Amino acid sequence: MAAALPDLSDDERDAEAMVGALLTASRLLVAVSTRSLAEVAATLTLPQFRMLVALYTRGSLNLSQLADELDVQPSTALRMIDRLVAAGMVARGSEPADRRASVIALTERGRDTVLRATERRRAELTRIVARMPAAQRRGFVRVLRAFTDAGSEPQARPTPGERLGW
User: Fold this and answer.
1) 34-134 has which fold?
2) Residue 8 vs residues 3, 12, 22, 149: alpha-carbon distances, Å
3) Around 75, how many Cα atoms within 13 Å sit in the side-chain half-sphere?
4) How far apart are CA 29 and CA 132, in angstroms?
5) Angle, helix 46-58 to helix 74-86, in steps of 10 degrees
6) Shortest CA distance to 147 belongs to which of 16, 19, 3?
7) Residue 55 in contact with residue 90, Cβ under 8 Å?
8) Alpha-carbon Rg of the chain, whole angstroms?
9) Residue 84's Cα: distance from chain center in Å?
């Protein structure tokens, strides 16, 4: 049995309960993401997949932009790029305005990987959501949007005909 949280206000106890629930939910979401990715590209890591998704959603980016997007050091991004180039998922090209500057773009194989892994994740999440009581599902979307807004995470805006939503 969990120890009582002494000297906390009701709001602080509510926040603690919410953080605990989110930690548990995040484990589930990471597990779902990992399984869906493993079914599509077993050797791809979640950080590498994040890079593919960033290129999918933002288009071609230079090294600095990609590192900023992923909140990693440029040297880390460069190592990831090298691995993804070797895997045929991204390609290096040059900036049209400055031929000395390189840009990183998603290949067809990379795009297909993003779409297939995301569709598998969507299918598993759909099965999980279907097991929730309908009354709880209704408020869940509102709460999740408030949470992602508070964390400054933009809402997924898939293009027409696609359901990316990473």
Assistant:
1) Arc Repressor Mutant, subunit A (1.10.10)
2) 13, 6, 19, 26
3) 0
4) 15
5) 90
6) 19
7) yes
8) 19
9) 17
**Which pair of structure tokens corresponds to residue 29?**
């979401």
pLDDT in tens, 112-153: 999 999 999 999 999 999 999 988 888 888 888 888 889 887
Q: Which amino acid is at 156?
A: A
In order of 21, 80, 122, 132, the CA distances from 46 in angstroms are 22, 11, 16, 27
pLDDT tens digit sequence for 70-127: 999 999 999 999 999 999 999 998 777 777 778 999 999 999 999 999 999 999 999 9
Residue 107: what pLDDT? 97
